[in-house]
C-alpha cells in the first residue's frame, strides 16, 4: 500500500477519542516532516509519548521542568527539530504557560516551522474561545510559512476560529454518537464512511472542497521510530 500524501505544511486538525491513534499518526507525520527537512516543534503534554522521534538525527528533546527559565530564542537556534515534553513533576497549567511563551517567540521571530499541538483543548480557554497565540499563528502564520497541526479528542469542542482555518482534518474512526451526529451535519454520509473504517483508520476531510478526499488505513502508518503512546 502506498503512503498517502498529506500537506503537512498547512494547518491541520487530527481528531479522535482516546486510543483512536491520533498520536501514532501525528508521530508518523513528524517523521515525514523530518525527512522533508521542515523545521518543527512538537509540543507534547505527556512525558514519553513522542520521545521516540528523537531517534532521528537532529531531533532534540526539550524537557520542561517546573520553575525553570528557558531562553526560547536560543532553543530555536540550537535545533531545527524539537520535541518538547514535560517531566513528571511539571503541572499541566505551568507546561502550557511555558509552551505559550515558546510559541509566541516562534511567531514573533517569523521563522518557518510546523508546530504540533498535542491535547489542544489544554491550550484553549474553552470550546468557543481559542488560545490567543494559536489563533495568531493560525490566522497570520502562513505569511511566515508557519503552520499548526492540532491534535484533540473532541472535534465538537475544538474552537471554530481554529477549525475554520485548517486546510485538512484527519478524523479518526469515531465512536461517540454526539460526534458522529455532529459530523453528519457537515458530511451527510459520515456515519457510513466512519463505520467502514477499520480500527485506527481515519478519514481525510478537505476544508476547501468540504469533502472526504481519502482514508488513512492503519497499515499505511509506517513508523520508523518508537511510539510510546
Ligand atoms: N496505525 C496503527 N496500527 C496499529 N496500532 C495502532 C495504530 N494506531 C494506534 N495503534 C495502537 O493504539 C495505541 C494508542 O494509539 P495513540 O497513542 O495514537 O492513541 P491516541 O488517540 O493518541 O490516544 P490518547 O488520546 O489517549 O493519547 C497505540 O499505542 C498502538 O498500540
UniProtKB/TrEMBL annotation:
GO-annotated molecular function: 3'-5' DNA helicase activity; 5'-3' DNA helicase activity
Report the catalytic activity. Answer: ATP + H2O = ADP + phosphate + H(+); Couples ATP hydrolysis with the unwinding of duplex DNA by translocating in the 3'-5' direction
Domain of life according to the entry: Archaea
Q: Which residues form the Helicase HerA central domain?
A: 8-44
Family affiliation: Belongs to the HerA family.
Protein name per its UniProtKB record: Helicase HerA central domain-containing protein
Amino acid at each position: 500500500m502506498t503512503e498517502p500524501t498529506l500537506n503537512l505544511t498547512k494547518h491541520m486538525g487530527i481528531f479522535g477519542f482516546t486510543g483512536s491513534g491520533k498520536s501514532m499518526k501525528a508521530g508518523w507525520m513528524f517523521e515525514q516532516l523530518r525527512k522533508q527537512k521542515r523545521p518543527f516543534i512538537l509540543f507534547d503534554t505527556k512525558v514519553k509519548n513522542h520521545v521516540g522521534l528523537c531517534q532521528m538525527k537532529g531531533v532534540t528533546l526539550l524537557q520542561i521542568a517546573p520553575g525553570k527559565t528557558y531562553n526560547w530564542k536560543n532553543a530555536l537556534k540550537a535545533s531545527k527539530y524539537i520535541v518538547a515534553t514535560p517531566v513528571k513533576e511539571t503541572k499541566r497549567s505551568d507546561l502550557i504557560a511555558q509552551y505559550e511563551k515558546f510559541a509566541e517567540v516562534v511567531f514573533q521571530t517569523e521563522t518557518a516551522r510546523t508546530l504540533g499541538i498535542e491535547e489542544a483543548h489544554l491550550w484553549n480557554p474553552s470550546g468557543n474561545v481559542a488560545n490567543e497565540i494559536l489563533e495568531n499563528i493560525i490566522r497570520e502564520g502562513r505569511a511566515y510559512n508557519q503552520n499548526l497541526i492540532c491534535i484533540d479528542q473532541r472535534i465538537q469542542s475544538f474552537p471554530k476560529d481554529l477549525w475554520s482555518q485548517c486546510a485538512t482534518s484527519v478524523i479518526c474512526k469515531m465512536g461517540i454518537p454526539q460526534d458522529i451526529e455532529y459530523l453528519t451535519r457537515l458530511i451527510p454520509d459520515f456515519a457510513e464512511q466512519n463505520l467502514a473504517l477499520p480500527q485506527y483508520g481515519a478519514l481525510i476531510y478537505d476544508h476547501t472542497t468540504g469533502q472526504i478526499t481519502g482514508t488513512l488505513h492503519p497499515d499505511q502508518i509506517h513508523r520508523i521510530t518508537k511510539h510510546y503512546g
